[in-house]
Amino acid sequence: MALDHCRGFFAAGPGPEALDTTTLPYFLTRWVTHFCAPVFVLLAGSGARLFADKADDDAATARWLLTRGLWLMFLEVTWITFSWFFDWHMIHLGVVWAIGGAMVLLAGCVGWPGRTMAAVGVVITLLLAAVAVPGDWLLGWLFQPGSLNWFGKPVSSVYVIVPWFAVMAIGWGIAPALADRSRDRQLVIGGLLLTALFVALRAVNGYGDPSPWALHERGPMVSAFAFLNASKYPPSLAFLLMTLGPAIASIPLLRRLGGPPGRVLEIFGRVPLFFYLLHLPMYHLGALLYARVVYEADKVQSLSLPLIWGAWIVGLLVLLPLCSWWNGVKKRRCYWWIAYL
Question: Which of 241, 270, 321, 333 has its CB surrounded by the most CB atoms within 10 Å?
Answer without folding.
Answer: 241
